[in-house]
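Q: I have 204 residues here and want to know how they pack in 3D. Can you give me a structure?
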Amino acid sequence: FWNTSVTRLPSSAVTYRNEQSSLVPACNTSRDLLHDPLLDCPLLDRLSYEKFIAHGWTKIVHKAKLDDGTSIAIKTVNINGKDVSDCSRTESLLLCHNKATEKLVREIWLLKELQHKNIIQLKYFCSKVDGGDWCMKYAVIGTEIGETLSNLKLLQMTWRERKIVIQDLVRLIHYSSSSPLGTLGLADLRRPQFVLIKGHLKLA
């Protein structure tokens, strides 16, 4: 995605100030992030995606493997998702892509701020959004990977396993009411927003 969409997006696809330019430049990493221990764009750029996991209105999620064999979940902008598609009916593709990227950037910030055992753990991220309105923004989120929480999985659980899931959900709700950022709300609270990791429920 980085190679094909960010450095190769033709100017005919966007509203661009410099009509002589054939490519939209990529944005830069903000200086205040340069020393963040979780920022690792070179690592995320070279990962190969092994398996498609899921997609939503804004993001698409793949499974990738690190050099040590550890699997992680990779979230990027879903260029074919509803957010970008609906927006591009009236706005430029560049603007719509950048709006979707900003949602990923906000998620990175939230995952860094909200440290809780029932919220998915941020492993690595890349954020390139510095450079104004006329560069292409870029964000990738790398998190621990979990098992999809399907209806079949819930039905196959023992009572003890279900009890753990219920307790995890209660802890998450309690944390959300008094988090370091204040009271939190999640308008789209559905089963697909959660995964299981070692038998415990985590908000993904």
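Q: Anything worth noting?
A: Strands lie at 49-55, 59-65, 71-77, 122-128, 138-144, 147-148, 194-197, 200-203. The chain has six helices and eight strands.
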